[in-house]
Specification:
With about 230 residues, the protein is of the alpha+beta class. Helix content is about 40%, strand content about 25%.
Length: about 230
């Protein structure tokens, strides 16, 4: 649905979800997600919002002022915010970012571990993977596609837990497999049109050389025939 507010441009999207009592009691669940295009008038200052929030900046700059984190979140950066506490963020310039609010019975422990490890802000491949994940939630919302609450919970947990130090090797293995599957999915959806390796790489936020290396290794091919 369209979202309107100070500093939010009309092309922005916002989606909210209803979760079952069982999901709220036992699972990690999404509360809302959005894709915002903002101006310098965008400013959020809340005492609490009873959830956690993941923000992925695509362009521009988001300034965050929270008890646990004060930072400028730049393009290809992401941050996890404790919205149970006072949080303030704003965009001092035109900015594009995606986000989603989530919660669950183990989210407090996960958040505290990330804070302990100084892992609330992410850059590089971690931030790219998180942005792709949030974009997938937005795509599901736009398509009005249903998803099992259990499957969704596992997906959220997998991405958030993978940020904790010690899960690096498992994360790399999963990311490699996931990248190959997303490549195949892109080809399947666009096979009626001419496809270049650069098109796939751009859609997956990865370099062409890395795409070729991972895809060929996972599919036992010596090359992508596109």
């Amino acid at each position: 649905m369209k979202c309107y507010g100070p500093g939010i441009l009309p092309k922005s999207d916002f989606y909210q979800y209803l979760n079952s009592e069982l999901a709220q009691a036992y699972l990690t669940y999404r509360i809302s997600c959005g894709h915002y295009f903002t101006t310098s008038d965008y400013d959020v200052d809340r005492v609490d919002f009873n959830s956690y929030q993941l923000i992925c900046v695509k362009s521009g700059k988001l300034v965050l002022e929270c008890p646990d984190t004060t930072a400028e979140i730049l393009p290809c950066h992401s941050v996890i915010i404790d919205c149970y506490a006072h949080h303030h963020y704003f965009t001092p310039e035109p900015t594009e970012f995606s986000w989603f609010h989530f919660d669950g019975n183990n989210c407090r422990n996960i958040y505290n571990k990330l804070k302990e490890d100084n892992s609330l802000i992410h850059t590089g491949q971690d931030a790219i993977d998180l942005a792709i994940f949030v974009d997938s939630l937005l795509t599901l919302a736009q398509m009005k596609a249903s998803s099992s609450e259990v499957d969704l919970s596992e997906n959220i947990n997998r991405h958030i837990l993978s940020l904790i130090k010690g899960f690096t090797k498992e994360r790399q293995t999963h990311q490699t497999n996931d990248l190959a599957m997303r490549t195949i999915d892109f080809i399947a959806k666009n096979y009626t049109s001419p496809i270049k390796v650069s098109d796939i790489a751009k859609s997956l936020y990865i370099s062409e050389s890395n795409l070729l290396r991972v895809f060929n290794a996972q599919t036992n091919n010596s090359h992508i025939a596109i």
